[in-house]
Amino acid sequence: MDVLELSRLQFALTSMFHFIFVPLTLGLSILVAFMETKYVRTGNEMYLRMTKFWGKLFLINFALGVVTGITLEFQFGMNWSKYSEYVGDIFGAPLAIEATAAFFLESTFIGLWIFGWNRISPRLHAVSIWVVAFATNLSGLWILLANGWMQHPVGYVLRNGRAEMVDFMAMVTNPYGLLKFGHQIMAGYVVAAFFVMGISAWHLRRQNSTELFKSSFKIAAVFALVSSLGVGLIGDFHAKGVAESQPAKFAAMESIWNTQDDADWNLIVIPDTSGHKNSVEAVGLPEVLSYLATGDFDGRVTGLNDIPANERPPVLPVFTSFRLMVYLGMLFALLAVIATFKAWRGTLLTSRRFLWIMVYMIPLPYIANQLGWIVAEVGRQPWIVYGVLLTADAGSPAVSLSQVWTSLTAFTLVYAMLGAIDIFLLFKVARKGPDDDLTFIVKPANSQGA
Fold first, then answer.
1. pLDDT tens digits for range 14-60
2. Model confidence, pTM
């Protein structure tokens, strides 16, 4: 590997590891805020115990997310200096707003929430976690608008040998970035919902705090149902945006080699990249692919053979990741429907096999999120900014091979340690269950006790 390939590998490693924590933070902050609001409104201490239990898991995840995210921005200057020099004025703007407007807001109010128990009113304390949830999702918006600009650059001109922003609002209202945000936010909510349902299912099988975990499961099941359907709906709009602005990526996602009208969507496809065709195409749905790409059953889908070879992304990883992500998304929606039905019917405790399934489902939404990012980032290649700057031209010429090897090795070791700590802490807290001692908590004015 040369310096460029190692730098790509390093950024992939650090960003994918960081993104283990982001989706859970996005969704769990909202669930914890909802639980505390239920406590403030009802005075039922079960919701307080619920809030503190899931809040501990949220804080562990949040702390690791902050630590692992810091290194990403340093790499733009160290490993990708040509990229920063060429588009830094544009790409740096949403990152700066994310840090100053979203992350500082999030950090301030999460401190208030952590240390505000018994020091501020219950209503204000609940408001603080809602602000955290809002700021967390706002942070995601600015990051994804920045990435959306890399995928579909708008509002800029090439001047003085670099890209300069001329229309900030064009970037803010970039349809690609907004659809990417909606799709990713909903996917993060799915992670959080299945995380809560899986841990709740584990405790329900052991009949630990059954009322608390039945309520947690029900809240998360509804959240999972709404968010999994949202992923599919927004994903459909997003796919049409990809087909329009990045036809090479869409062709790789679906392994379409020849440009077609009335294109069928095949359930079973095995690409033959060396022969520039598919060796197997089976169980076709007539004209469905044309509709997915264009919104028209008679629409034209561009094939890879009509795209210059040096502008095609790697087909196999993009296609495989996309198919697995779609199949997992369908599974999540199906399980969310079953979970919601069982939760509202009150049959969870008698559905022991289903509860076991939900326990083992915890890691799958994480995997689906990582697959989505592989599709987005590998599918954009060979461009780092689509149609503007090639990845091969974006590296740092002054960085040596030994320096990247050293930093990559160090990141791998440190992140492995952090990952082990995270798993240990999450497992320990999740296994222990909620605390019973709440004597130090001030009750809301309408509390009737429990």
1. 888 888 888 888 899 999 999 999 998 888 888 888 998 999 899 88
2. 0.88
Would 431 be classed as within a structural domain? Answer: no
Task: Work out the angle at residue 267's Cα, subtended by the Cα atoms of residues 237 and 383, and round it to the nearest 5 degrees.
Answer: 50
352 within domain boundaries: yes
**Band of residue 448 on the pLDDT scale cut at 50, 70, 90:** very low
Range of the domain at 324: 209-391
pLDDT per residue as tens digits for the range 373-406: 899 899 898 988 888 888 888 888 888 888 888 8
Q: Which residues contact 167 (CB under 8 A, 6 or more apart)?
A: 154, 155, 156
278 occurs within a structural domain: yes
In a domain, 1, yes or no: no
Residue listed under structure tokens 């899931």: 54
Number of domains in the chain: 1
